[in-house]
Amino acid sequence: MASASNPTEGPVERLLEHERTIQRLRRELRSARVWRLFIISTFSATPVLLLVVGLANVFTWGRVDITRVNIACVPVVFALLIASWILGTSTIDHVNWETEYITGRRIDLELAIERKRLHAVNLDLPTETRRHIYRETVPAVIEKYRNEQMHYRRIHNIFQSLIIVGSLGASTIAGLADTPPPYKWILVGVNFAVGAAAGFTGYFKFRERSFYLQQTADSIEEELDNFSLRVGRYKNQGDDAAALADFTDRVETLKSDQRKRQQQLDQPTETPEG
After folding, report:
1. In terms of pLDDT, which residue wins out, 272 or 110?
2. pLDDT grade, residue 3 (50/70/90)?
3. Domain check: are 114 and 138 in the same one?
């Protein structure tokens, strides 16, 4: 005799189908954005390079010979022109990089997320089943926090490197006895870049954001390992349902603490009134 099917199997499959649609739309949207950035960068590289070389020739005319630089830029310009022509002819029949396509994909993604939410609200699953589903999503949450942590850490390291190298370079240029006029403008530009990097670092707090995200990801991963191995706070819990409920509550607490820290970092720095 055939076994009776789970009454929630159909709704769960539809919910998973919504999730697959969301993931597909996210991949398409990400690919379209990267492709658009690559095309725009290639098309704009030639005029930008010509503008930079032209300005360099104007400001160094009669003082510094940059003939070698001009000669070296000629093959680069030709290569960029050829690449632009190839991209132009190969993407003329494709619309997966245009603004209208990206906007449409973004709207489709928002609608797919809303459909999934409405379907999940009407899906009557037992509480324990919902907790098991929640537990399976925890590794994705950990990966999300770590990806964001790496993003903020990378930005912080770039700005810190700019501050260190720029400060040393500015001190070296300023220490010259007779600074030629071109180097004075370079000194002004370096000082401006250092000041801007320091201001962005202090205002947006990239290091603090990276630290808190890494801390939260490590804490959630530790809870997941403790729950899976039944160690730590789950060591003496013989009831799996109670342990799962405790695990869900603990992870939600960690995520809530992370959101509160994020809100605190988003608050502007208060200055004491004089």
Report:
1. 110
2. very low
3. no
Q: Which of 77, 104, 124 is the last residue of a domain?
A: 124
- 204 or 12, which is more confident: 204
pTM: 0.65
Question: Same structural domain for residues 130 and 162?
Answer: yes
- 76 and 174 co-located in one domain: no
Domain around 241: 126-269
Q: How many domains does the chain have?
A: 2
The three-state DSSP-derived secondary structure of the chain is CCCCCCCCHHHHHHHHHHHHHHHHHHHHHHHHHHHHHHHHHHHHHHHHHHHHHHHHHHHCCCCCCCHHHHHHHHHHHHHHHHHHHHHHHHCCCCCCCCHHHHHHHHHHHHHHHHHHHHHHHHCCCCHHHHHHHHHHHHHHHHHHHHHHHHHHHHHHHHHHHHHHHHHHHHHHHHCCCCCCHHHHHHHHHHHHHHHHHHHHHHHHCHHHHHHHHHHHHHHHHHHHHHHHHCCHHHCCCCCHHHHHHHHHHHHHHHHHHHHHHHHHHHCCCCCCCC
Residue 140 sits in the same domain as residue 24? no
